[in-house]
Amino acid sequence: MPGMTSVEHTARTEPSTTAGEREMLEGWLDYHRRTLALKCEGLAEPQLRTASAPPSDLSLLGLVRHMAEVERGWFRRVLADERPGRIYGTEEDRDRAFHLTEADTWDEACATWQGEIARARELAAAHHLDDLAKGEHRSGETFNLRWIYTHMIEEYARHNGHADLLRERIDGATGD
Prior knowledge:
Blueprint: H1 21-40, H2 45-48, H3 60-79, H4 106-125, H5 145-171
């Protein structure tokens, strides 16, 4: 998955059952990243844009865009105190990632998502699990890398449940 601009032929394996803590956390996070990629695999652009059910505008494309924002927020802004702007969201529409326009494309969203994942890996590699984040979260709370990893696993797992339902609605595909 690293460096991919498409999610065709995404491989996914469960992490080792005897791994150390860091390897386990990184393994489960990558597993869930790949799960979202698998839910998008093999679909045409119109299918990726298909909303779940009115009035919701939730789509697989929107989920990928949202997760690019989440990766950026937790690893770049909070962990590393980088100051990149939002990718899709605005002050007026924080959930803009979900609100697609005709100009929004899968190729752009997938490349952006993969770029944010690559940057997240780089930043995390420079920290220990107990290291406190250098940036500030909007809540004002302080987080360590362990908490960020755990939260990211939870975030992907929750949205992968949404992706399961979206994919089943699009073409009937079900599975992990």
